[in-house]
Amino acid sequence: MSVPANLNIVPFVSVDNMMKLVLAVGVETFLKELATFVDEDFRRWQSFDKTPRVAAHSRDGVIELMPTSDGALYGFKYVNGHPKNTRTGRQTVTAFGVLSDVDTGYPLLLSEMTILTALRTAATSAVAARYLARSGSRTMAIIGNGAQSEFQALAFKALLGVDRLRLYDIDRSASERCSRNLKKFGFEITVCNSSQEAVEGADIITTVTADKQNAVILSDNMVGAGVHINAVGGDCPGKTELQKDILGRSSVFVEYPPQTRIEGEIQQMPADFPVTELWQVMEGSASGRTSAEQITLFDSVGFATEDFSALRYVREKLHQHAFFEQLDLLADPDEPRDLFGMLLRAAG
Amino acid sequence: MSVPANLNIVPFVSVDNMMKLVLAVGVETFLKELATFVDEDFRRWQSFDKTPRVAAHSRDGVIELMPTSDGALYGFKYVNGHPKNTRTGRQTVTAFGVLSDVDTGYPLLLSEMTILTALRTAATSAVAARYLARSGSRTMAIIGNGAQSEFQALAFKALLGVDRLRLYDIDRSASERCSRNLKKFGFEITVCNSSQEAVEGADIITTVTADKQNAVILSDNMVGAGVHINAVGGDCPGKTELQKDILGRSSVFVEYPPQTRIEGEIQQMPADFPVTELWQVMEGSASGRTSAEQITLFDSVGFATEDFSALRYVREKLHQHAFFEQLDLLADPDEPRDLFGMLLRAAG
């Protein structure tokens, strides 16, 4: 990506260009490289400005802004969550994001983030599992086979070598589609008739359902010793997936406690329920998995730094793959203080 | 503006198209119409979700997100403030914004807002002055003749009939440029050598300087009875323009107290310093100016609802003037849950 000749221009990655970029890099390579950016940023967690997301809740959904900064770059994501959208042919979650230069405040990149969020969520799950799942984990149950499921499967394959999937969704056609979409990627896939069946023999259980309610996707009796639970779907107030008792038996790892206590599975637990921050495990100041019998749980809600990592990675990749347009987003008068003169001159 | 045929498309108003739109409508008409949207939204103030802006401060500036919603529409603005930017040929303030549908969370409009912010700030100032300045006010001093000055002048002309300007800037060439830019608009303009000189005989004093510090642009002895002060430039912590004593002698009107007490001129005063909320004056539950001798002060910092009004207005105008592009911003798979399948199919 060359430096824009004109200060008014912001590179823009459309949905079409994001797909071209992911395909040019290769989905698994993209996930693996993106994971290194996520990992890198988690390890320097303390250099980030962190704030819980700014959420506007309405009857049927939520619109959120998720900003963060490392002092040199600033990023934010706009993201909605509207489970009912699928009824009108829309996405439950859509997103876009911006990366900016802290020194000038000027945006450096505007990008679609619906696809990118799916990728970064999966990459983050797999990064966490690398520290928390038993080594040699090969079998993963995925409960909830919607838009996020294939990305999760591929991230766990790329980063951990997971190659056996056990799929369950209340809508069997979703599992079948997921299975079909993943056909070429070398998994051994079993479509299951219940979540009970799906978790049989699984080293890792990924829960990634979309309903906005307190549901029990996973009940306590379904979770055996040594399992790693990757809880992705419970990510806003009133939306959980796990029976409370599971939390009591697990070592729980989270991204950013002030946010997770409101939005994660642990919203079911008292405010002082013990959790470990993932970044501390990654940089070595806290323990991850300490025994083969331990149940580990990544209570993932998605945090702004992960979007930051994703935008930072995409910006890097644009140097090699010029899949972007130039957007005339910023006013750039010849003389900075003469904004009105620019308008007058536009009249010819 | 027709409804996009494809759900992936978001209408985008570039800087170029914003200028075309403003020129097609006419600057003064644009300001006047925009003012009716601002006025309308202030009058239904209580129907808005309000939150102080989310600011990321750095050594040389700030990046802010300003969200709000009326329950049907959601809007936010990204805006930076970097006074040193002018040294590198950049704008002190650049901005863009998004208006979304609360029911689906889908963005309906992405727009440049550098020019639009200048217009909405000026329109808001003039709307406030209509309630607070003495009727028959014709002479306005403008102290600080940077990017915002011409917009202020034209808004006060369009809404109040102000037709005599007294300009002062520490950089005389700024005043001269402002004067030159406004030549065709029918003002009687005096370029002054000091702020003292500028305020002589002024009915309204607009302060709109850019330095990020606690400055005294206007000292107490310069403010006579009956004047309306439109204090625009003091708009973040550590950045004020008025000598504190002026505040004590004035009736102070603000947009949103929790934000203004941090960012406005009244950051110099105790937390319980009495202020009146502008919306209450506008909907009739509080008094504005009550006597000809009263000094009124609009301590403006800019609030999210004003950006919301501006985006709402622009979206309306696009029905008549199709100055927008179609941006491929949102992923729109044929089957909403099949995001990964869309990616696979893009590979051909």
Automatic annotation (TrEMBL), chains A, B:
Show the stretches that span the lipid bilayer.
none
Q: Domain of life of the organism in this record? A: Bacteria
The UniProt keywords, alphabetically, are: NAD
Q: Which residues form a coiled coil?
A: none
Xref: InterPro entries: NAD(P)-bd_dom_sf, ODC_Mu_crystall, ODC_N
Q: Which NCBIfam families match?
A: PRK07589.1
Family designation? Belongs to the ornithine cyclodeaminase/mu-crystallin family.
- Tell me the protein's name: Ornithine cyclodeaminase
